[in-house]
Design goal:
With 514 residues, this protein is an alpha/beta fold. Helices cover 46% and strands 16% of the residues. The chain has 18 helices and 16 strands. A 6-stranded parallel sheet has the order 3-2-1-12-13-7, sandwiched between helices. A 4-stranded antiparallel sheet has the order 5-4-6-8. Strand 1, helix 1 and strand 2 form a beta-alpha-beta unit. Helix 11 crosses helix 15 and helix 15 packs antiparallel against helix 17. The chain is elongated. The protein starts with a strand and ends in a 44-residue tail after the last helix. Bound molecules: 5'-O-[(L-methionyl)-sulphamoyl]adenosine. 5'-O-[(L-methionyl)-sulphamoyl]adenosine (MSP) binds next to strand 1, helix 1, helix 7 and strand 12.
Length: 514
């Protein structure tokens, strides 16, 4: 084994159904998980759902069901989505898991024992929707902004976690580890947020107000604040079978939960407990729909990933989100963009190249990849034998730029496509004097398709399997090293040829645009 890799995603609130933003983040993490596996690393990949808190309690109440039953049903919807997208986590995290609840209580007790948690009276405004205290400073034009929902005035004693004692240490950590928060502009935002003293964080909610939570170990009249519960998941599930994986190599989150949740609360919790910080906190942007953030609170903007998976297949959705979003920035979703990508890159691109290569081998060489020897190789063949694509791919992934990794692969596929145009094997096939030349061409195409089947597997796992089945190669995930040129298919018999991405007109339910 070439070492290990531990990565996590945010865990999604179960108060409403998953949307494209949730699907994206999980696919992104799955891409990195599969990539690391292809480097022969042992991978722990955690993702799942955040089940406690006021929002879930309220949603369950609205339906007149018990929050656990509500959460069970919603959690299944999230895990079913992961399954249909091929998101193969090591473990589907649920915060109602008794093991997790115990770890949360242990952490709270430890922090209390170390004097990091104080009990104090607080009078002020509380946002019911955001489950947090707010101050006059949060008002916009004298009004509470919409995101806070109902804001009430309360006076109650609560437990507070002290953040300020760790502010300087966190700043030092950020200074010493410039690649801790990616992209760099997000790191700057966290540093800016750390310029002012940090207020104590209220980490308790009276049970009378919120019953759906984990009781504090030192005061059963309170449950813990949902973030204090949710963040701990990264640790509670990090020791499956007792093997300790700490710290995470990569934690993927959206930009809305960097400040303060992950950039400040989470990092300071770890510092206070003497635990190592994650190596990278990777912050992605938002999917928008015609410019509006896709969010469960805005029904018009919502994009449900399921119909896209059903209509175009899971890999089409995976490809679209990974290729279209420049990691860190926002990206806009539209049916038009989706169909353009599907048709140009998948059906006419990778799909067509694979199909025509294998069909020609079937037709002209009875399904066997030809053997060739002693030929002068053209520039095109040298391009197709080059491992530059693998290097470019690796470079892009190491820079957390899946869109560039995919660009590199598609550049290679386009080179192979152009090679078909340049060499016109269908014409060569008509001239017996060109038989040896045709062998060279078909063998290079077959090898290119084989290499592509390895290169695409982190992004398009279902397609990789289909490609390898058609090549009659093992469909189990390959090592990335196998994407290097190897001319390994000499005299290899291929399997039955099936189109990878059917044209849209032939897809059931597809209405061509007027
Ligand atoms: N439960 C908390 C996270 C706890 S992590 C210890 C939460 N849940 S969420 O369901 O609201 O969001 C889950 C993830 O989905 C977050 O990383 C969030 O940024 C991401 N997305 C939600 N909407 C999104 C888009 N429109 N686009 C991309 N991702 C977005 O926050």
């Amino acid at each position: 084994m070439a070492g290990s890799y531990f990565l996590t995603t945010a865990i999604d609130y179960v108060n409403s159904a998953p949307h494209l933003g949730h699907a994206y983040e999980k696919v992104l993490a799955d891409f990195f998980a599969r990539h690391e596996k292809s480097l022969e690393k042992e991978v722990l990949f955690l993702t799942g759902v955040d089940e406690h808190g006021q929002k879930v309690q309220q949603s369950a109440q609205r339906e007149g069901v018990d929050p656990q039953a509500f959460s069970d049903r919603m959690s299944r919807q999230f895990s079913a989505l992961h399954e249909s997208l091929g998101v193969a986590s090591s473990r589907f995290v649920r915060t109602t898991d008794p093991l997790h609840k115990q770890v949360v209580r242990d952490w709270l007790q430890k922090l209390k024992d170390r004097g990091e948690i104080l009990f104090q009276e607080h009078e002020g405004y509380y946002s019911v929707r955001q489950e947090q205290f707010v101050t006059e400073k949060d008002k916009v034009n004298g009004e509470w902004p919409e995101i806070f929902g109902e804001v009430v005035h309360t006076k109650e004693p609560n437990y507070y976690f002290r953040l300020e004692p760790y502010r300087q240490r966190l700043r030092d950590h950020l200074e010493a580890h410039p690649d801790f928060i990616v992209p760099a502009f997000r790191r700057k935002e966290v540093l800016a947020a750390l310029e002012q003293p940090l207020a104590d964080l209220c980490i308790s909610r009276p049970k009378a107000r919120l019953a759906w939570g984990i009781p504090l170990p030192f005061d059963e009249a309170y449950v813990t604040y949902v973030w204090f519960d949710a963040l701990v998941n990264y640790y509670s599930f990090a020791a499956p079978d007792g093997v300790q994986w700490w710290p995470p190599d990569l934690q993927i989150i959206g930009k809305d939960i960097l400040i303060p949740a992950h950039g400040i609360y989470w990092t300071i919790m770890l510092l206070a407990l003497g635990l190592e910080l994650p190596r990278h906190l990777l912050v992605h942007g938002f999917w928008t729909n015609s410019g509006a953030k896709i969010s469960k609170s805005d029904a018009k903007s919502l994009v449900d990933p399921v119909p896209y998976i059903e209509k175009y297949g899971p890999d089409a959705l995976r490809y679209f989100v990974l290729r279209e979003m420049v990691l860190g920035q926002d990206a806009d979703f539209s049916d038009e963009r989706f169909e353009i990508r599907y048709t140009a890159d998948l059906a006419k691109g990778l799909g067509n190249l694979t199909n025509r290569t294998l069909s020609m081998i079937s037709r002209y060489r009875e399904g066997r990849v030809p053997v060739y020897d002693g030929f002068h190789l053209t520039e095109a063949e040298n391009d197709l034998r080059s491992d530059a694509v693998v290097e470019e791919y690796l470079q892009a992934v190491s820079e957390f730029a899946p869109h560039l990794a995919l660009q590199a692969i598609w550049k290679f596929a386009q080179r192979a496509d152009k090679y078909v145009e340049e060499t016109a094997p269908f014409r060569l096939a008509k001239d017996p004097a060109q038989a040896k030349r045709l062998d060279v061409v078909l063998a290079h195409l077959a090898e290119s398709v084989r290499r592509l089947s390895v290169l695409v597997q982190a992004a398009l796992p279902f397609t990789a399997i289909k490609m390898r089945a058609q090549l009659d190669l093992p469909v189990t995930p390959a090592r990335l090293a196998e994407a290097r040129f190897g001319n390994s298919l000499r005299n290899h018999a291929i399997g039955p040829v099936v189109p990878l991405f059917p044209p849209l007109e032939e897809k059931p339910g597809h209405k061509p645009k007027a």
